UniProtKB/TrEMBL annotation:
One example GO MF annotation: oxidoreductase activity, acting on paired donors, with oxidation of a pair of donors resulting in the reduction of molecular oxygen to two molecules of water
Keyword terms: Membrane, Transmembrane, Transmembrane helix
One Gene Ontology term from the biological process aspect of the record: lipid biosynthetic process
Protein name in the entry: Fatty acid desaturase
Sequence intervals crossing the membrane: 24-45, 51-73, 185-203
Keyword Transmembrane attached: yes
GO CC annotations, alphabetized: membrane
Length: 315
């Protein structure tokens, strides 16, 4: 809370950090409901346009589930730790082949050492800025499924290697990237498959493949990369909380397809990490009202954030 108390009063932080079970239920219901509506849209008007739109919307809501898992990891989705763990694990993490306890450990270390040599996410952000050609290659791999297939295959291979090997498990547990993936697969996979089966029962047999596996391997990977780049790509490698992370302003289309559930207010989240996502916009306004706007790293759009990371053509 140190960074937050530098710029906000304790009473302001206390008000911002107040959690709501009703809001937590609404967020999870909204995410799952949006997925159902995307399916219904294609079911009512099946054509290439609604197919592509459904894949994009569902992929963005898979990111939405990751964001709500992230909220639960901070115990910010619900008032009680038990409810955060239960809903965060079964309704948010496992449907996207994630594991809440492993993610919590990994992610809190990122918060503690943001943009320093001990940050486990530094390997992601230190690559930027990069060239436009490099970004194009990355995005093409994401959108064609190569990134998702490679990661899923690696995750399966790692889980098989670790099965029954206690020494290997101990070694993997010391590696953040491996531990985050290895412990989750065989417990999460049945839930992932169950979602696909439910979609097949709701429509045609192939709906689960088309509207859960395909978005997971393509659009979800793409927006996950865009979000990672916008949050810490081409920012200061320092302990300055106003410059080592970026907030990106997002309009309705960006919120629908790229940045659901106020994930774009990342600077504010890092300043006081247990503030629920739905109060981050209010926190942003408070900081701007304090005159901090010019000192904060804020992109006007995701295009600008990607431009700072290397998408913008050199003059």
């Amino acid at each position: 809370m140190t960074a937050g108390t530098t710029y906000l009063t304790r009473d302001e932080i206390r008000g911002l950090a107040e959690r709501s079970d009703a809001m937590g239920i609404w967020l999870v219901a909204h995410c799952l409901g949006t997925i159902a509506l995307a399916l219904a849209l294609f079911g009512l008007w099946p054509n290439p346009l609604t197919f592509i739109l459904a894949v994009m919307v569902i992929g963005s809501r898979q990111l939405g589930l990751a964001i709500l898992m992230h909220e639960a990891a901070h115990n910010a989705l619900f008032r009680s730790r038990r409810l955060n763990d239960l809903v965060g694990e079964w309704l948010c993490a496992r449907p996207i082949l994630a594991d809440l306890p492993a993610y919590r450990h990994y992610h809190l270390t990122h918060h503690r050492f943001t943009q320093t040599d001990k940050d486990p996410d530094l390997v992601l952000s230190s690559k930027f800025p990069t060239s436009r050609a490099s970004l194009k290659r990355k995005f093409l791999r994401d959108l064609t499924g190569r990134t998702g297939i490679k990661q899923l295959a690696g995750q399966i291979a790692l889980s098989l290697r670790l099965a029954g090997d206690e020494d290997a498990k101990a070694a993997a547990a010391s590696d953040f990237a491996q531990a985050f993936k290895a412990r989750q697969l065989w417990t999460a996979l049945p839930v992932f498959v169950a979602v696909m089966v439910a979609m097949g029962l709701a429509g045609e047999w192939w709906w689960g493949l088309a509207f859960w596996l395909l978005p997971y391997l393509t659009w979800f990977q793409f927006v996950l990369r865009v979000r990672n780049i916008a949050e810490h790509g081409a920012t200061e490698e320092s302990e300055n909380p106003l410059q080592n992370v970026r907030t990106t302003l997002a309009g309705p289309v960006a919120r629908l397809l790229v940045a659901p559930y106020w994930v774009n207010f990342h600077l504010e989240h890092h300043m006081v990490m247990h503030v629920p996502c739905w109060r981050l916009k209010r926190m942003h306004r408070l900081l701007v009202a304090r005159g901090l706007g010019p000192r904060m790293r804020v992109a006007r759009s995701y295009w600008q954030a990607l431009g700072e990371a290397g998408w913008k053509r050199p003059a």
